[in-house]
Amino acid sequence: MQTIIEFQHVQKRYGDKVALDDFNLLIEKGEFVTIVGSSGCGKTTALKLVNSLLVPDAGKILIKGEDIREKDQTQLRRKIGYAIQGSVLFPHMTVEQNISYVPNLLNRKNRQKTREAVDKWMKIVGLEAEMKERYPAQLSGGQQQRVGIARALAASPEILLMDEPFGAVDEITRAQLQTELQRIYRQTGITVLFVTHDISEALKLGTKVLVMDRGEIQQYAPPQEILSHPATEFVRKLSEQQRRICRLPEERLRDCEYSTAACAHASLEGGNRDDTQ
Ligand SMILES: Nc1ncnc2c1ncn2[C@@H]1O[C@H](COP(=O)(O)OP(=O)(O)O)[C@@H](O)[C@H]1O
Ligand SMILES: [Mg+2]
Question: Does the predicted TM-score (pTM) go above 0.85?
Answer without folding.
Answer: yes
